[in-house]
Write a structure and sequence with these properties.
The protein is mainly β. Helix content is 7%, strand content 33%. It contains five helices and 29 strands. The chain is elongated, with a radius of gyration of 22 Å. It is found in: Membrane.
Length: 458
């Protein structure tokens, strides 16, 4: 069981700059250009990368990806305009598509022709910089896709300030659209005058459906089938490995973050911090071949996710006393699908490494054995579990923890994890929107102070 003494933590966000000088803290710096794009899926020709507010001929980004102008997808250009910003935050991975945007002053829609048989990976990027004389605090708006509410009263400025990030990505997996027509509508908030909407980029990528029924934790014998549901991708981490940029993903242009900031009371390079166990990062040896299979094809996750992992380490006495724990912020009143990516990189036999999986203090799996599940070393596998987050104090947090299974008497008292994804499932009202993440009072004070000292920049 996860001890309550192990799940107490505090999060203090400190910022000495305004949003326009905020750097991404939980993502690694943009990598240097070098690797070629990963092999594209069969449906790559249908993928659409739209740079909003860009020139009619489109643009090419830092990685060589071609972005199309958004103008031809607007159902009406009335009450919209393109805009640019002069400030390029050092945390931006590329100048394109962040430096241009589409400003929207009244409800406006984009219409796209899409695959009628496949799920759609829909991704927005928002860079809440200063565009002309517009006040970025007045960018508050709703976003819907074919009637599904994705964002409500969304403020990119407040969200970025709270997360201390320079830009915000919102990503969704939508159910197939039989009509082959996807309508995305941006509606500025009507609560106050002069509110507006904006968006820097829209990506639409057909994707295979990898979602199957998953056990609902805490409800014995119950499961949820999310194949008929749309999802929001809340978190995606490469456990034990580093930051994976979109260009190195396996065809879906996803970003995989380093898991270190999500470890409970994490401290880089340490196995312990204030008595909290952090485990150790491991990587496949040269004699271990890691490769995709028919059950886990390329589009599920790139091989770089499965070539690295985090284990508890070689000391069984230490491992028995601790849980390896990650902490994620989520929205209350939603059901979540938690996907665990596994690939054994050291053990070769069943019951060499057997462990328990906990989600929010509840047992998701009593006897997790990657070799037993996958059949051999270097063979990837993933497991899905579902959990519901209630609307109670402290319920905006989702905990994932691993602990050795002593009852199975494994050869090694240890656990392993390679990657983790957390998906929010749409509710019964066709809604995926959660509240804005509010910055701490300390952050607001720091931002106000920064504004007074940097008038030329702001």
């Amino acid at each position: 069981m996860i001890s309550k003494t192990h799940i107490l933590f505090s999060l203090i966000l400190v910022s000495s700059f305004s949003l326009n000088a905020i750097h991404v803290l939980c993502e690694a710096p943009a990598p240097a250009p070098a690797p070629a794009p990963a092999p594209a899926p069969a449906s790559a020709s249908e993928s659409q990368f739209i740079s909003c507010g860009s020139p009619p001929d489109g643009e090419t980004d830092f990685y060589g990806r071609k972005w199309t102008s958004d103008s031809k997808f607007l159902t009406s250009s009335d009450n919209t305009k393109s805009a640019t910003t002069d400030y390029q935050d050092p945390a931006l991975p590329s100048k394109i598509p962040y430096m241009t945007t589409r400003i929207i002053n009244s409800a406006t829609s984009y219409k796209f022709s899409v695959s009628s048989s496949k799920r759609l990976l829909l991704r927005f990027q928002f860079y809440p910089s200063v565009y002309g004389s517009l006040e970025n605090t007045k960018a508050v708006f709703d976003v819907t896709a074919n009637g599904l509410t994705l964002l409500r009263h969304f403020s990119p400025f407040i969200t970025a300030l709270a997360l201390t990030q320079a830009y915000i990505i919102r990503e969704y997996s939508l159910v197939p659209v039989p009509s082959g027509s996807l309508t995305i509508t941006f509606t500025p908030s009507s609560k106050h005058e002069n509110f507006f909407a904006f968006v820097n980029s829209i990506e639409i990528i057909p994707m295979e459906d990898t979602f199957k029924p998953a056990d609902l934790i805490g409800f014995n014998g119950q499961s949820i089938d999310v194949q008929g549901s749309s999802l929001q991708i809340m978190h995606r981490v490469n456990v034990g490995g580093g930051y994976i940029p979109p260009i190195n993903d396996s065809g879906l242009a996803r970003t995989w973050l380093d898991d270190s900031p999500y470890l409970l009371n994490s401290a880089f390079g340490a196995s312990f911090f204030n008595g909290i166990f952090l485990g150790v990062a491991i990587e496949a040896e040269n004699n271990v071949t890691v490769q995709h299979t028919s059950d886990v094809p390329e589009f599920v996750a790139p091989l770089s996710v499965y070539r690295t992992a985090r284990s508890m380490g070689p000391d069984p006495k230490v491992n028995e006393k601790y849980n390896l724990t990650w902490v994620f912020q989520v929205d209350a009143n939603f059901t979540y699908l938690v996907r665990f990516h596994f690939c054994e990189l050291q053990s070769t036999k069943a019951n060499e490494r057997s462990f328990e999986i906990f989600i929010n203090n509840q047992t998701a799996e009593e006897t997790a054995d990657v070799i037993q599940w996958a059949g051999s070393i270097g063979k990837p596998i993933y497991k899905d579990y579902a959990t519901h987050i209630n609307d109670k104090e402290g319920d905006e947090i989702l905990w994932v923890a691993l602990h050795p299974n002593r009852e199975q008497h494994p050869q090694y008292y240890d656990a392993i994890l390679n990657g983790l994804e957390i998906f929010k499932v749409n509710d019964t009202h066709g809604n995926l929107a959660g509240p804005n993440i509010m910055p701490s009072k300390m952050l607001l004070n720091a931002d106000a102070a920064a504004r007074s000292f940097m008038p030329n920049l702001l």
